[in-house]
Amino acid sequence: MIVIPRENHEFDMSKVPLYRDLPLVPDTDERHAWDVFGKDDNLGTINWLTPDHVLESSKLIKTGKMINLDLPLNQPFRPLEAEGRKTYKHNIYRTNGGGDDSLDGFYLQASSQFDALTHVRFGSRGFYQGLQNEDLDKEDSRLGIDHWARHGIAGRAVLLDLPRFVGPSFDPRARTSMDGPMMEAIAKKQGVTLKPRDIILLRTGWMKWYLENDHLGPDRMDTAAPCAGLDGMRETAEWMWDHRVTFFAGDNIAAEALPPVPRNFQHRREVPLFGMTIGELWYFEELADDCAADGVYEMFLVSHPLNLPNGVGSPINTYAFK
Predict the structure, then answer these.
(1) What is the pLDDT of residue 79?
(2) How many domains does the chain have?
(3) Is the Cα dihedral 48, 311, 303, 109 positive or negative?
(4) The domain spanning residue 261 has which CATH number?
């Protein structure tokens, strides 16, 4: 058995190149960050979460309030009966001595979830670091979500509340794209400053709408149906990189505005080219109400994805501390 050590890459934030200075992926007009943390890196932008940053971010805890950002595992997704995406079966065994349980067919990205760096590839150029399929299924678990589990995910997070920013006319089912300037405008209205290494939480209100209208049927999970979310254009990817965003998470299907614009979908850039995870189907309603009540939109966030070698995704196991 190979024991994979916890990664800890040394880097100087002041020397991290701007987006315009990143190298081009050969024969494309897209840029990659495969050399920023070294060719053996498996963490991507989770590298931003250094001990000094975690320590400083922990000072955001003022009241000790803990707010869960996970949905129950059986919500909200009715998984597509394809590509291994089947609804799990929960087996519970009870005896006079106690009980046990197990899950059969547990699709790891059916509820609040992280995309690991093996979830999306950039066409023939492969996954983060240019790795190919044959590079991934080895005992060193290249890019598996277990690397994040061993490193840890903790840092400053900022909630950007799009419905409250727009007002009563907002419809989460309409395609509203949140680009860099809009995110800055939302933050300004909320009285919070976006900082390097932030985890950005995008509340679109889509999850609230979906859960309240779940009786409408599984077609409401149609990924072609319009919804609000992160803008998919290259300029927004540049903004995310140059602002040193650790990752972003949304309360909708893809965290991005849907349907995507052809050739402009951040999953295809930020996961394989930047090494940036994406969080999807998170639940922000309790957090959003709390932030609106106290006017504090920054918090200390802690996540623990599954320590699953070669894992492609994971439930988030996430709390916001205020």
Answers:
(1) 59
(2) 1
(3) positive
(4) 3.50.30.50
Q: Report the candidate in 226, 301, 280 with the shortest Cα–Cα distance to residue 109.
A: 280
Q: What is the pTM of this model?
A: 0.94
What Cα–Cα distance (Å) separates residue 130 from each residue in 30, 35, 121, 172, 280? 13, 11, 9, 36, 24
Q: How far is CA 241 from the centre of its chain?
A: 15
Question: CA–CA separation, 33 vs 106, rounded Å?
Answer: 33
Region for 255 from its dihedrals, namely left if φ exceeds 0, alpha if ψ lies in -120 to 50, beta otherwise? left
**Across the strands, what pairs with 155?**
301
The answer to the question of residue 84 being in a domain is: no
CA dist., res. 120 & res. 275, Å (int): 10
User: Can you give the length of the chain in residues?
Assistant: 322
Going by pLDDT thresholds of 50, 70 and 90, the confidence category of residue 81 is low
Structural tokens at position 65: 């309030």
pLDDT of 199-217, one tens digit each? 999 999 999 998 888 655 5
Contact 162, 292 (CB under 8 A): no
5 occurs within a structural domain: no
How far apart CA 41 and CA 34 sit, in angstroms, is: 8
Q: Which of 39, 69, 103 is nearest to 318 (CA)?
A: 69
Residue 39 lies in a domain: yes
Q: Which of 176, 173, 148 is nearest to 162 (CA)?
A: 176
Whether 284 is covered by a domain: the verdict is yes
Alpha carbon distance 317, 303 (integer Å): 5
Please report which confidence band the pLDDT of residue 260 belongs to, taking 50, 70 and 90 as the band edges: confident
Residue 245 lies in domain: 21-76+111-321
In which residue are the tokens 């409408």 written? Answer: 216
